[in-house]
Write a structure and sequence with these properties.
Helix content is 73%, strand content 0%. With 78 residues, the chain is an all-alpha fold.
Length: 78
């Protein structure tokens, strides 16, 4: 199992979403469940947007994200 660091404010928001999911599903959920839910929801919304508007066809968004993160890291390094 991996660990990730999140700010306290982010953890509070994840906890709020966990509460909503627990109410909806009628069972306890983990932070992993919450993150999976958010990822699935995002991809579902993105897929719908792509179907409706043809957004980002032919682009590798994951590679673009990694490139952008690398550039951000390089800028923030002393």
């Amino acid at each position: 199992m991996e660990s990730i660091k999140v700010k306290e404010e982010t953890k509070k928001k994840l906890t709020e979403i966990a509460g909503m999911l627990e109410k909806k599903l009628g069972r306890r959920v983990s932070y992993d469940d919450v993150i999976k839910y958010l990822i699935e929801r995002k991809f579902k919304d993105r897929k719908l947007a792509e179907e409706l508007f043809g957004i980002a066809k032919g682009e590798n968004l994951y590679e673009e994200l990694l490139k952008g993160r690398k550039e951000d890291d390089e800028k923030s390094s002393p």
